[in-house]
Amino acid sequence: MKLLKYTGIALASLFLILLIVSIFLPSEKTIERSIHINAKPARIFPLINEFKQWNKWSPWHQKDTNTQYTYNNVESGKGATLTYKSAHSEVGHGVLTIHNSSLDSLVELTLEMDNAGKATRTFLLQETDSGTNLTWRFYKTTKDMPIYVVPFTKLILPFIENFVGPDYESGLANLKRYMEANPVISIGDFDAEIRDFSGLNYVGIRSKIKGENISATLEIFYANLLEELKKKNIKTSGNPFTINYFARGDTFDIMAAIPCDEPNSYNPPIVSGNLPANKWLVIKYLGAYNQIGTLYSKGFEYLAHQNYKPVGAPMEFYFTDPKTELDSNKWYTELVFPFME
After folding, report:
1. What is the CA radius of gyration of the chain?
2. Pairing state of beta strands 93-102 and 278-286?
3. Are the C-beta atoms of 317 and 284 separated by less than 8 Å?
4. 76-92 pLDDT, tens per residue?
5. What domains sit in the chain, N to C, each tagged with a CATH number?
6. What element of type H or E holds 301?
């Protein structure tokens, strides 16, 4: 009994000492690693901003390729989540959520791990003459943690760099190797890339439209689609886009579409559809919409030169709102050509 008593006293004393020591320790920790990559931010950004691209460079995927991944219906950017589950002690279980995303410059995420609270991961992309300086930052604070785990967390924070630092260095090196081993594709005056697309549901309106009426008609269609989704309490899950079936003279057969969480039934002219998983050639176009037409023939020429077979109509995904960005030179659009190898 005396042994148990003395052991209890010793443990209580040790806990008290640790509690006192923790009071004088910092309550937050920032770690960052940087690397230079011989590629422009526009090429690197999608591999960070879209969770389904992470396995191309993630250091944790290398540690356990059997990790189970679950994604929500937001394809990329703000609102996208990744839930992972692994038996590997250095991977574990957790949820990543993108809560801030600025095109080609910043991606900020929240990491929630089992029994470890929240942490912030930030990617900063700075363009240079020869490519991109990429910084990966980790930030952890005890301010939002239950009071009973704060002392132990503060004791761990000084040593956390030993765990986070090497993984960040490995991840950045992986990303650099991947980008520099996959040189940029140039189509016309614009960068392009081959992308693995996982599929999405959409709601849309298809119509034959005169060229001079395209912008005004699409604006009406998108407003109608958003109103219909709101009525059915269905969430959007990505950027608006068009499926461009064909053009004859000055008449264009176009589907105005919005990605959404789930398929549903609608009254005509509204329909629901699905874009299947496929390979995509993506041309990263910057400029006014009425100048994008010349890239269509160039995109099909590239596919033909590579012996790729187009499957389905080309599409335009819109990332800039012309109502908020008045300078058409800054309008960013991704012109997509689905294909089979």
Report:
1. 25
2. unpaired
3. no
4. 899 999 999 999 888 88
5. 21-183 (3.30.530.20), 194-340 (3.20.80.10)
6. helix 294-305
